[in-house]
Write the structure tokens for this entry.
Amino acid sequence: MGTWDIGPFDNDTAADFAGDLDEAPLEEREAMIRGVLKRAAGPADFLGIYDGERAVGAAALVVAQHSDGDRACSNYGPSEPLPELPADLRMLAVDALDQVVSNRSELAELWAEAANWSKWRQDITRLRDILAPPIPPQEEALFEI
């Protein structure tokens, strides 16, 4: 695995995807991100490592444009500007991230063997929670209304 850290673009595959985005015309970049997320989110028996790594990078780009997001991309992420990404990519990114950490993901399988697996998983969960915040538990009412 050509990976050097837990960040979304801290691996060869995602860094190459960022380079591809930089080289593409601005009007094609959204479609590239959408395609990566669709491929990862779609029904498949197994999500390969390269599709998983690209999906994490693409999801981080969606998060970066969210009002609660931050610049989640390292020096290896795209350096050229991205168009405003449509809101429907948020749920697609959530679905892709869910597949990335599923038991059908080669990327999750490889990270499970790494010493810093829990940090990687926390970072994926952080990205997902920005896009689809967990619903807080409801307190029971003291009185019937």
The two ends are 57 Å apart (CA to CA).
